[in-house]
Write a structure and sequence with these properties.
The chain is an alpha+beta fold. It has two helices and nine strands.
Length: about 190
């Protein structure tokens, strides 16, 4: 009988140990799952913070550029006669290059005038090659932009003497990923 009691106690002890091990493993699995979820959330937060940092750095850089450009290129950024012709563009794909700013060195343009055009290209993937990615077409042919400062490019254009009412510039913009965009800017003539 004593053997039966010992055997029963052994079975009970084994069951208790098995239950304790099962409970601990179940708890550990929940803890591990919670830790894994926490790590995923931390990784997602770090990625978001990195993207926010890149975005903020980009905008701080733009603000500094604008400040410097006001001093370096006052004919465009600190002038009462400059004409801003920046076209509206709805961003569908942030990696499509688009005109971010187009400024003429004067607000009254006539047929036969020689004008300077300053422009920049926005590309949210920041893969637009300045100035190689920009070709400007007009009645006089293709023009290649020259780098000016930062992301700005410039070119000189002679408005044809035969031009009436407006003169169109077609900007062909191609980024390093091969994405391209064509935009037309119309210069009003007086």
């Amino acid at each position: 009988m004593e053997n039966w009691i010992l055997a029963g106690l052994g079975i009970a002890a084994s069951c208790l140990i098995a239950w304790v091990v099962y409970t601990v493993q179940k708890r550990d699995a929940k803890v591990l799952e919670a830790l894994a979820n926490l790590l995923k959330e931390q990784q997602a937060a770090l990625i978001e913070m990195q993207q926010m940092h890149e975005h903020l750095s980009h905008h701080i850089k733009e603000q500094l550029e604008d400040f410097v450009l006001t001093k370096e290129l006052p004919a465009f950024f600190d002038s009462d006669v400059a004409l801003n012709l920046t076209p509206n563009f709805s961003v569908v794909d942030p990696d499509i290059p688009r005109l971010g700013e187009v400024i003429l060195d004067r607000n009254i343009v006539r047929a036969g005038d020689s004008i300077e055009v300053l422009f920049r290209v926005d590309d949210d993937k920041w893969n637009f090659p300045v100035p190689d990615g920009a070709t400007v077409l007009h009645e006089g042919g293709a023009l290649i932009a020259e780098p000016t400062s930062g992301k700005y490019m410039s070119l000189n254009i002679v408005i044809p003497a035969s031009a009436k009412n407006a003169h169109n510039l077609e900007f062909l913009l191609v980024d390093q990923g091969g994405k391209e965009n064509r935009q037309i800017v119309s210069i009003p003539l007086h």
